[in-house]
């Protein structure tokens, strides 16, 4: 493993990505308070412009509350297909330019330029990449260069919008020191408020706390938080690959032609892979359905989709693909569902068309599954009378 002081990690973040895409599609929105989200007041704000944030609006806020804060805001119905298209465009530019990168979410990237400083100035190289992305996509980027992922991400957030900065090796801790504890990844509102009650307001104060105390206070996460407060992060840049997948297959004990059974199995399998996707804080951009007939002939069909990990969206696509596959109307012995083109992200980002109630429903369902087991809560449609079948997960 390369020495810590030899690493050069850049973090690139597309500024207010969804809003920036909408600016490209409709320049008249520039300079105005814009809310991206569902088309009704019961929805949530998926993203908002900086002008809207000046009114106290933020992502995840109920739409009706945001409109109460800024009655003249423009609400734009989100178009995740367009956002996925622009994300792919930027990804292609990055892929064609750098030796190794990690796509951390739909709008942010980590680039490992370790060793490149001998041949190219890493700061200059990242600046050129920023200009190239803007030329190809029209999207503005903020970025930071540091010795690890933690510092580069925090620094990027500090220089937005359209900012860039380099934090030299050895200055990680001093850079973090004056920042509020809420700027440190891993410190949420609840934990941060607890620290405030102790008089710990800055990352510097947090870094000075005994690690043993933090472990007693937070459990095993306390040690990691202490490391972060001290600017320590040795996590690697994970090379992006569209071939990473989550999948499941089911071979039936008895081959069947019963459409109700086949549909129920597909729903159950899709629920399973979607839950695993959410458990890993990932989104999928492509769905594949596999079908094997009783004579062992096997067929697959896939479809690129806007990034998602919500059951109801994936189930709709899976059913659509199955109906296109199932042409022979003979006995089926195996079905499979596979999700690919995975990126980091949470389903709250993706539920543009869903209400607050739908978001809370998913959170409750996942909480129950995590606590009591995945099979303790399922859709009624996924229950069938067939006996237990052999199941294969990949």
Can you walk me through this structure?
By secondary structure, this protein is α+β, with helices and mostly antiparallel strands. The chain folds into 3 domains: 148 residues, Reverse transcriptase/Diguanylate cyclase domain (Alpha-Beta Plaits, 2-Layer Sandwich), CATH 3.30.70; 70 residues, 5' to 3' exonuclease, C-terminal subdomain (DNA polymerase, domain 1, Orthogonal Bundle); 148 residues, DNA polymerase, Y-family, little finger domain (Dna Ligase, domain 1). 40% of the residues lie in helices and 22% in strands. It contains 15 helices and 14 strands. Strands 9, 10, 11, 12, 13 and 14 form a 6-stranded antiparallel β-sheet that branches. Strand 7, helix 6 and strand 8 form a beta-alpha-beta unit. The relative contact order is 0.12.
Précis, in short:
The protein is an alpha+beta fold and 394 residues long. It has helices at 17-25, 50-53, 63-69, 80-97, 122-137, 149-159, 172-176, 189-197, 203-207, 211-218, 221-229, 259-279, 311-325, 347-350, 356-372, and strands at 9-14, 34-37, 45-48, 74-77, 101-105, 108-112, 141-146, 164-166, 246-256, 282-293, 298-308, 332-340, 343-344, 390-393. Strand 7, helix 6 (149-159) and strand 8 form a beta-alpha-beta unit.
Features:
disordered C terminus, 394 residues, DNA polymerase, domain 1, Dna Ligase, domain 1, globular, 15 helices, Alpha-Beta Plaits, alpha+beta, six-stranded antiparallel sheet, 22% strand, 40% helix, five-stranded mixed sheet
